[in-house]
Specification:
The protein is mainly beta. The chain is about 5% helix and about 45% strand.
Length: about 170
């Protein structure tokens, strides 16, 4: 079985796939008479193609046990899709660039639970991979009359693998 190493989720590493939604390093400023700090413009929501509209959803993900085998991927060709965790629990992200799917270009990341992701339009990704416990996410997605989810089943599974020191620390 092929193995895919899980990397730490960072803005720089995730650029080819979309945005990392996090406070660290984000532009921010005080509002509401100084009682609130606004972290501004954290992701590019792209959902208006072909008359699409913005949906705000809540997803409740069941925890997965390690090891995890990746057997399918999906993409949303008409809009971006953002996942913003609410529970602070770590989770995994598996992505591949938009366009024709190439399993050798897949990458896997782990989030500490305080980082969200915004998949750019057409980026291949695996469905939610919560770890440790049930986890809730606000999901900003595209609504509309056209189908907006393509699924692809891999010809052979890929197993996700943490580096030993990351797994011990988690």
């Amino acid at each position: 079985m092929k193995t895919l190493q899980i990397e730490r989720l960072t803005r720089a590493a995730f650029v080819p796939f979309g945005d990392v939604i996090e406070l660290d390093g984000a532009r921010h400023f005080p509002i509401n008479g100084g009682t609130t700090e606004r972290y501004h413009d954290l992701a590019t929501v792209d959902v208006t193609e072909k008359g699409g509209r913005t949906l705000i959803n809540l997803f409740r993900a069941q925890p997965r046990s390690l090891p995890v085998d990746i057997t399918m991927m999906e993409r949303h060709p008409l809009g971006s899709q953002a996942f913003i965790p609410l529970t602070g629990q770590r989770y995994l992200v598996v992505v591949a660039p938009a366009g024709e799917f190439d399993p050798t270009r897949m990458r896997a990341f782990w989030s500490d639970g305080w980082q969200g992701v915004n998949y750019a339009k057409g980026v291949w990704h695996h469905p939610l991979l919560a770890l440790d416990q049930v986890s809730d996410f606000v999901v900003v997605d595209r609504g509309g009359d056209q189908p907006n989810c393509d699924e692809l089943w891999l010809s052979e599974p890929w197993r996700l693998a943490f580096e030993a020191d990351v797994e011990r620390a988690a």
